[in-house]
Amino acid sequence: MRHRNSVRQLGRTHSHRKAMFGNMVTSLFLNERIVTTKQKGKELKKISEKMITRAKKNLILDDKEAEKKLHNKREIMKVISDRKVITKLFEDIAPRFKERNGGYTRMYLLGRRPGDAAEMAIVELVEKASTVKDEETKGSKKEAKKAGKKEKQEK
Questions:
Q1: I need a labelling partner for 28 at 20 to 30 A (CA). Which of 6, 97, 108, 150 fits?
Q2: Contact (Cβ atoms closer than 8 angstroms) between residue 79 and residue 22
Q3: Distance between CA atoms of 7 and 119, rounded to whole angstroms?
């Protein structure tokens, strides 16, 4: 009986699952969107949200608690091996979710895959980097237009 065994085995060994989800989390943080099966997506959400929460804790900690900061980073480095993705997580993704208390990812169901009828899903981060950048560029464009109008009026 499998009572209270919450790990989805997905027909894989422990080491295969660990490597697969490490790669999937890396791809999710790198591209901020990933297409996978529904069951893998549900597990991926659990793993990625825990990692974002750990990265957020580093924003709160001050320099006196440097050991805790290092511990959080090392725990994430157990799963993600790409340094660029780790820096993106700590410097870009975690600050984006600073005010949010969970629910960092969302999952859209796509229907069934033609080959084997597996349910497919898109897993993505809720707040995208492009929205933050777009707001900044919109503000700067408006300011540039205002500055241009003022210069024309002065002439």
A1: 6
A2: yes
A3: 19
With tokens 């290092």, the residue in question is: 70
- Model's pTM, two decimal places? 0.79
b vs e for 90-113, b when ≥16 Cβ sit within 10 Å of the residue's Cβ? beebbebbeeeeeebbeeeeeeee
Q: CB atoms < 10 A from the CB of 120, how many?
A: 18
Q: How many CA atoms, within 13 angstroms, populate the side-chain half-sphere of residue 142? A: 6
Domain extents in the chain = 14-126
Are the CB atoms for 125 and 105 separated by under 8 Å? Answer: yes
- Taking only the tens place, the pLDDT of each residue in 3-52 is 988 888 999 999 999 999 999 999 999 999 999 999 999 999 999 999 99
The pair of structure tokens assigned to 39 is 């069951």
